[in-house]
Amino acid sequence: MNKALHPFLFLMILFLLVACGEAVSKTDASKQGEGTPHIVFVIGDEEYRSEESMPMLAGLVKRELGARVTLCFSVDSAGVIDPNRLDHIQGLEALDSADLMVLFTRFRALPPEELSRITAFAESGKPMVGFRTATHAFLYPDSSAYTHMNNDWPTRVFGQQWITHHGHFDDGRAPLTSVSVAEGGNHPILGGVEPFQAYSWLYHVDGGEWQLYGDSRPLLTGQALRSAHEEAGKTDQYPLTNPVAWTKTYTGEAGKAARVFFTTLGHPYDWKDPNMRRLALNGIAWGLDLPVPENPNLEPVRPYAPNNSGFGQVYKPELRPEDLLP
Predict the structure, then answer these.
(1) CA 319, CA 219: separation in Å to the nearest integer?
(2) Residue 168 belongs to a domain with what CATH number?
(3) Distance, first Cα to last Cα, the chain
(4) Which parts of 93-151 fold into alpha helices (H)?
């Protein structure tokens, strides 16, 4: 008998090997997806170009933390991003499967079915990260059943409501806040974060008649480089230094405690500084209880050249969510 392998048998064996190889590859790929954190960015702010900064941050989070990201924007009826539309954010059903929510909204009045997605996530005990205007994420009229969302909800969840700030002063032309590590600051979120100059004008959150809520722990302090309150002689009520980043926990009615990281920074030009990007990346990693990256690549995945802050039609027109996917 000829001991040489029959051509037909050879082809059959080759086919089985390839098929098995493909099956192994698919199995490995599915294993790689196990445990991948899902981060949902809820974006709706008409002043600070969050429609540009949050996709940039999502790209960093996807690359450096290996996360899956979903971006939920305020859009018009044609699906074009419209930061001035206050009553709609698309895609919030993604929060049902999210492991962490990032909130950067300002004075929204969302319909009940959309608002309930956000509040349900907050009650889940899963971590949250908030930026700047999330202290005034919502604004419902006095006749609404949701007025508690205006001040009470952001105070309990993120640590403070909207109070006042120290003044715009030539917005975007020069930094307005000097950022440094808070006294006694020693926290994983601060890893690799150096003092820097922020274009965000300083928000008042602590001092005078106000104080941060609950177990808020300041990480960074900001000093106003120019202040309308100083010019008015009101620094006893509104001191020139205030916390600009902190951690806290939020425990809802179900008794589930959530990790929360918040910063009042978030001007579109703040994100040009790698320290701001590192701060946000670290905050998200900490929220997920992941190791803070030791030496992350902080270069944006795509070029980051945002419009300046401001109201009206100062945002980039005709942007669609699919244009900004990381």
Answers:
(1) 35
(2) 3.40.50.880
(3) 62
(4) 112-123
Beta strand residue intervals within 2-112, DSSP E: 38-44, 68-72, 100-105
Residue 209, C-beta contacts closer than 8 angstroms, at least 6 positions apart: 237
Residue type, 77: S
Which pTM was predicted?
0.89
User: What angle is formed at CA 227 by the lines to CA 176 and CA 54, rounded to 5 degrees?
Assistant: 35
Q: Is residue 271 part of a domain?
A: yes
Q: What is the rounded (10 degree) CA torsion for 19, 24, 27, 29?
A: -100
Domain encompassing residue 171: 37-302
Q: How many domains does the chain have?
A: 1
DSSP conformation letters of 160-226: ----EES--SSTTTS--EEEEEPTT---GGGTTPPPEEESSPPEE-SBTTB---TT-EEEEEEEESS
Assess contact for 100 and 69: CB atoms under 8 A: no
Please provide the DSSP assignment of 246-272 as one string. EEEEEE-TT--EEEEEEES---TTGGG
Q: In this structure, is residue 174 part of a structural domain?
A: yes
Instruction: Give domain status of residue 293, yes or no.
Output: yes
For residue 243, the surrounding DSSP H or E stretch is strand 241-251
* Residuewise pLDDT in 10s, the chain (326 residues): 444 445 444 444 333 333 333 332 222 322 234 589 999 999 999 999 999 999 999 999 999 999 999 999 999 999 999 999 999 999 999 999 999 999 999 999 999 999 999 999 999 999 999 999 999 999 999 999 999 999 999 999 999 999 999 999 999 999 999 999 998 778 999 999 999 999 999 999 999 999 999 999 999 999 999 999 999 999 999 999 999 999 999 999 989 999 999 999 999 999 999 999 999 999 999 999 999 999 999 999 999 999 999 999 999 999 999 999 99
